[in-house]
Every structure is written in C-alpha cells, then in structure tokens.
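Data card: per-record layout.
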Amino acid sequence: MYRQIQINTGKDHTCIGSFTQTAQARGRTEVRQVFVYKDIRCISAEWAGLRRLIRVERDIRKKGEQSHETAYFISDIQSNNAAFFANHIRNHWAIENRLHWVKDAIMNEDRSRTTGGMAAENISIIRNIAINLFRCNGHQSVKYAIEMYVNKLEELYNLINYKSK
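The structure for this 165-residue chain is written out next.
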C-alpha cells in the first residue's frame, strides 16, 4: 500500500487541496506542507471506504542542519480541505506526546513486566487516571507531580477527590 500511495500522490498527480504551515519552537523551524488527493484508483480494493490520500512534506531546520521527511496518511473522510487534515494529524501527535510519551518515558510503561489476565490493561488505565488527575489539578509536568505526591497519602487523597469548578 505504501508504494501505491507514493504513486498516487506523485508529482504528476493533481492534488485537490494544499496547506502550508510554519512553526518555530526550541531552536527548530519546521515547514509542513499538506497535500490531499482523491485519486485512489491504484489502491487495493481491500481498503473499502478509503476516500482520500494525504501527503505531508516536512522541512526541518535545527542548529543549521536541514532535513526532509515525507509521511503518508489515508482517510475515509471525503474532504478536500488540507488545513482540516493538517489539524487532525497534528492533534494526533499531540495525543502521542501528551499521553503515550509520558506513560513510556515518565512512567516506564514499555518496561513493565506486568502480565496475566487483565493486569497490564488495568495498570495502563490507572496510569491514564493519574495523568488526568495531575492535569486537572493544574500540573503541567507529570514527572514533577509524581515527585510532589510520592509518600503523601493525604495530599494524594485530596487530589483524587478533585471537584471540577
């Protein structure tokens, strides 16, 4: 499928929507170009419901070094609005960075040896609850929140009894 998408989003195919965005953060400049295609003729029939192909070109400059990345996405949404797809793709990575990265890097989830029954899934749910409790109580850094509440059962109990305003 990867090769099929590359062919269908090649330079000789006409995109039906495009969007360009530039972002600067942490000494890094990133230019993202999003292109939307509706030509799905060469895509395998097993991908029923496929409506759009999206190609994202990223040019990144950091500390004087330049790099280029191309990513491909598929969608069952019949939209020609490249800004719409750009927003959804960025939001996906925001979830990845705000949840999954925290669970792995801060809570060491990938190194967990918990097995048997539903134990791994239950512990993952508990981690999600902890992250949400910290964030609902104004903690931007889960790492510092964990350090703040470790061995402070009464304060942790008050955190759990958080009442939204």
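Known properties of this structure: The radius of gyration is 21 Å. DSSP finds five helices and four strands in the chain.

See the next section for split statistics.
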